[in-house]
Amino acid sequence: MFELSPLWPQLKTLRWRRWLVVAAIFLSSLEVVSRLAPTVVGKHFVHQPYLCSSQPSAHDQFVTSSTSRFITNGRGARGSIFHDQPFRIAILGSSTSADSLLDQDDTWAEVLRDHLGKERVHVDNYAVDGNSNKEVAFFLKTLKESGPQYDMMIFMLHWAKLESRDTARLAFPFSGQWRTPQSMFVSPSLLKRRLLHQIALEPHVKKSGQWLVARLQSLLRPESTRESSFIHPVPLATSNRRIRNSGNIRFQDVPSKLGSKKIEFIKKRVGVIVGLAQDLCRNVVILTQPVAYDERELPGVRRRWFSLYPVSMTEPIYKSNKSVAERMRNVNRLASHAAKMSGALVIDLDAYMRPKLRQREDLFIDKWHFSNAGARLAGVFLAQQLSSEIRRKR
Amino acid sequence: MIFSTLEFWIFFLGVFFAYHLLAHRGQNVLLLIASYVFYGAWDWRFLGLIFFSTVVDYFAALYAAPKEGRRPRKRHMALGLSVFVNLGVLAVFKYFDFFLLSFVDLIGADPSDVDHLLLKVVLPVGISFYTFQTMSYTLDVYRGKLEATKSFADLALYVAFFPQLVAGPIERGAHLMPQVINKRTLDVTRFRSAVCLIIWGLFKKICIADVLAYPVQVIFASQDPTGGEVYFSTVCFAIQIFCDFSGYTDIARGLGRLLGFEFMLNFNLPYFAKSPTDFWRRWHISLSSWLRDYLYISLGGNRKGAKRTYFNLMATMVLGGLWHGAGVNFILWGIYHGSLLAIHRFLTRNNSPGPGSDSFLMRGLKIFGMFQLTLFGWLLFRVENMEQLSKLLFALGTHWDHWGSVWILVQYALPVMVVLLAMQLWQARSNDLEILAHTSWILRAVILSLCLSCVLLLNRGGGTPFIYFQF
Lengths: 394, 471
Prior knowledge:
By secondary structure, chain A is α/β, with parallel strands linked by helices. Chain A is about 50% helix and about 5% strand.
C-alpha cells in the first residue's frame, strides 16, 4: 500500500546553499514587484480588485463582482469610456459613493450623469470600497501627478472611524499606503492583504479559515469569541442577527461629543483634501454623509439588530444607534463648516435624506449604503443642485 | 476549483504529498477519488454523467478490441455504441436547444411555441474535452493501438484525471492509458520543469490573460466603438485567449508531471505560424490532431481527389468550430478557418519554396500576415451574437475618423504583451519551449521569482474561470 517515492531521497542531493540564494532572490522579487506594480500596472487593476471576468456575463454587462455589475474605464474609475464630453466630473469616496452593492446603472453617480446629460457630462467614479479619507488624499496626489483634468470633484468622505480604517481586508484598497510604506519592506503587508482578500473570495477556504480562527480564539480568549464574530457589513451577515437576538451583546449610549483633538483632525483633513482638490480643479463639492438612523428611533426607541458599532474586538461595548447617529451628524456639521471655510461648495445630502426616512423605508440597504431607490433620489437631488452650478461655472 | 485559487492549491498539495507516499495501485485509487472530488466541486450532479460515459466505454472497448474469432460486426457495433452514446450526451447537453431554436428560426416559427421542448440544462464543465478523450480510448482500442483495460478504475482515472479533465489537453488512449496502467516515477529534473511550467502558466493566466480581458470586455460591450478600438481589442483577445488556454495547459502539464504523468503538447508558439496549415499544427494541437486522425482521415483525408479534400477540410473545421460551442459564431469561425486552409492548400498545391522564401523578411511578413488573418477569426469567435458582430465589423470598416481610447488601451495592455513576446522570442530562438527549465539556475530563479511574485501580489482573486471551461 505505502511506498516512498524516489523523489524524497533525491531531495537530499539538493544544494541547500543554492536554495538559500533562491529564497533570497524570491523575497527580493516580492519586494520589487510590490514597489513597482502601482506604477506599471493599469490603475484599475490596483484600485478595483473585485472586477475580473474572462467571460461575458448576463445582461450585457461585462464586469461582475460578487454583489453587483459595473463597468470600469481605462482610468480605473467606474464609468463609461470618455467620449469628449465638455464637462468632466470625478467622484471620490468610499463604498457609499462607489455604491458597490448596486449595479452600475443604479448608482447615484450614474443617476447624476444621466440627469446632467450623458452627452455633456462625463463622470469618473473613483470611489473604492473601504477607502478612508486618508486614501482619498493620497489618490488626489496621484491624480495630480498623472491623472486627467477634471472640471469638478465631488467628495463624500467617510468618517466611520476617524483615525484610520482597517483596510487590510482589501487586496489593493489604494496604492497610497503601499507607495509610502511605514516599514522598510512593503511586501509582507501587501502579501497579507492579498491572502486575506483571496480567503474572503473563496467560500470553502473562508469557511474552514473562520472555523480555525474561531477555534484559536476560543483557546486564547474563551469569553470573547461570540462577540468578536459580529462582522461588518452588518445586514449581509445573517450570523449578526442571531448574535443580536442571543442577548449576548450589550448596546449602550455613549457620549457623541467630539473631543478637541478629533475636531482638529477633521478640520485639518477636510482642509487638506479640499486644498489638494482645488489644485486640480476649481469646483470642489463636499457632500455630507447621509446616515440612515430614523429620527423616530433615536430617543428611547427599541434598538434594532443592525447597529454598526463596534466591529473590532478591542471595543467590547456596542454603541447604540442613537450614539452613532448623533456622532455622525456632529462630524458632518464640522466637516461641512471646514469645507466651506476652505472654499468648497457643500451640499447637505444628509439633511435632504433625513426627512425621507420618515416617509419610506427602502432608501438604504443598511444604515449607510443607498438602495436603488435611495441612490436614485440622491442622484436626482444632486443633479438639481449641480446643474445650475455647472452652467454658471462652465 | 480553479487552478488560480487557494482552494485548489490546498487540495493539490494534499494530493501530492499523499500520492508520493503510496504504491502504484494506491496512487491510482487516490487520483481517482481526487478527480471525482475535483469534478464534484463544480457540480456533483454531473459526476453521474462522467461515470456513465466511463461505464459505456469500458464495455464498448472490451467488445471493440480486435480479437481472434471475434466477428467484425460485433466490434463495429461496440464502437458505434460508444460513438453514439458519447456524441448523444454531447448533443443533448450542448447542442439540442441550439439546433431546435435554429430550426424554428429557419422555418420562421415563434420560438415561444417550442419553449416546452427546450431542455435548458446547464452545460457540464469540460464535457467536450472528456467526451472526446473517452471516444479516443475506444477508437484506439478498435484500431488495435491499445489493449482494452480490464481494470475499470484505471479507465475511470483515464477519463476523469483532474489536471486535464475540464480543459484538456485531450489525451489519446494510446498515450495516456499506458501511463495510468504502468508505474510512474518523478525525479528532481522533472519536478523542476513541472514547477517552471506551473509558474509560467499561472503568470500567463493571471497577469496577462486576466489583464487583457478588461479592454476586450470594454470594447466588445461598447455601443459605439471606433475601428482602432475594435482592431486593438481583437489583438488583446488573441493574446488573452492564447494566454488563458495555454496557461491552463501549462499548469495542467506541470501538475501531471508532478504526479508522474506526461501530457501531450497543446501549443507550440501558434502566433509564429506562417500559414493556416502551420497555425493548426501549433494551436490546440490535441484537438486539431484529434480531428485530423479521427475525422479528417476517416472522411478520406486527401486520398480521394482535390474536391473531396477541400470538402473534408471544410467539414472538419466546421465540426471543430461547433465543438467549441453551440453558436452561429463558432460555425462561422470554423467555416472561416476551413476556407483559409482550403485556399492555402489550393495556392500551394504545386509550389515548392522559391529562393528567398525563407529569408528573415519573408518569414516576418508571413507571420505578420497570418496573425492578421487569425485576428478576424478571433473576432468571429469572441462575439456573443450577430448584432454585435455587425456592429464591430461596421466600426472596423468605417469608423476610423478618430482613434477613441486606443492610446489608453495600448498603454494598459502593452507592458504585459511585451513580457509575453520576449518569452516567446526566447523560446523560438532557442527552439525549446521549456527553455526556462533548461537555462542557468540563477536566471531561472530570477524569472520564476518575478513571475511568482506577480502571481501572488497582482492576482485580483476570485478565480476567474478559464475561457475554455465553457466548452
